[in-house]
User: What shape does this take?
Amino acid sequence: MKLAMVGTGYVGLVAGVCFAEMGNDVVCVDIDHAKVERLKQGRMPIYEPALDHYFQRNLTEGRLTFTTDLAAAVRPSAFIFLALPTPPDEDGSADLSHILRVADQLGPLCTSYKVVVTKSTVPVGTADLVRDALEQAGRQAGVDFDVVSNPEFLREGAAVVDFMTPERVVVGTSSPRAADLMKRLYAPFVRQGNPILVMDERSAEMTKYAANAFLATKISFINEIANLCARAGANVDCVRRGIGADSRIGNKFLYPGLGFGGSCFPKDVRALHKTAEQYAYDFQLLNAVLEVNARQHLYLTNRIQERFGGLVHGKRIAVWGLAFKAHTDDVRESPAHRVIEELLARGAHIVAFDPEAMDTTRAVFGNAITYAGNLYEALHEADALVICTEWPSFRRPDWNRMRRLLNQPLIFDGRNLYEPACMTDKGFEYHSVGRPSALPTRADSSHAPRRTPLDVAA
Ligand code: NAD
Assistant: This one.
């Protein structure tokens, strides 16, 4: 099948590469000339596990091409996917200008039958707007098309696996012809029997927002429980396991931390709240979800400040983890960045390290913070370590080396990576989220800081 992917960002690139991997001819279109040139030369603009492997193969075998020419991409294609940005407007609603501008351009190009598929996350009613725009713009040309809402549920960091083996595919369309074509396109991805759920456009659009809002609610809920556990002397790890074993609740998305971030959850929860407002509905729960999230990072920064006797000014703080979650270099609305902003505002000096998100962080903070070449370099003469992202490489570090490098063996863990009891044995003072703090045993804490150049090197 021939398809055009309009917008070659996170979603468009992953979807384009995966459709090509299944044997389709995919042409990816973007207005960013530099990005298209880089892609044509085989250079991947984002870090996403396994993506580069499939990208190189399909580029070499000619099933995947890139262009800035929308008309040339659309004319031979049966499916036109819109994977365009829907950033928040000033009032929090989704900005549809990218989608509607492209729909205007597509109108005159749909002279043979096309399925126009919205992959972007868009509010209820967008399919109608896209249909209107196509009809208006293509009035003279005698257009032939159907509109489909096909929201994307991939997770950054696991995007290829999610796209290749989706738990479900949602197809929103009132056209049986388009539904049939979409089922044929997705059939190779659901061979294990996962469902293709065909529904009306509005329900499909709402499904995506409802899914993200529900997941965000779970995160804010467990963060509230964690904060209360800390006050009440309970351990959120025990509580999490205790409730997660109940199949009505489930054990996923119940990890307390620094709050949700990334390019989707915050903007989608705000946009759903705005949609509710537009329909004169007071969606109170979403307000609470957002408020809890906006203050969750303060749980850690306030703890740090208290530990330093109310003053972090002049303290050298090592930060491990800058991406909004592991396995990505994406720092959009990253809780790690919120922690850094807060500590900088209180006068701390930050030395940061992340396995993938150094460049994306440098683009945000510039010279305001120091960038370390590896985990251990960040710790050199730091007064404390703060962990903000759950990268696997942070899970089993060299504890002896850490103790030698840090000015004092003090860790604030915003991701609950370690067992508090083990940290006591390892000689660290350890504070995490919603669990009792650990103090080092006297023998372990009496280490003498004997640093060698080898401690800092990679
Ligand atoms: P992105 O910002 O990474 O990429 C968007 C791309 O569209 C950019 O390359 C941009 O240059 C291009 N573009 C803008 N206007 C264009 C035009 N007129 N013609 C051609 N290209 C144009 O965005 P993204 O993260 O891929 O998100 C796209 C949509 O998918 C959003 O609605 C988002 O909410 C949704 N979504 C994102 C994720 C995710 O994890 N990133 C997951 C599910 C859904």
About this structure: The CA atoms of residues 165 and 370 lie 40 Å apart. Residues 201-232 form the longest helix (32 residues).
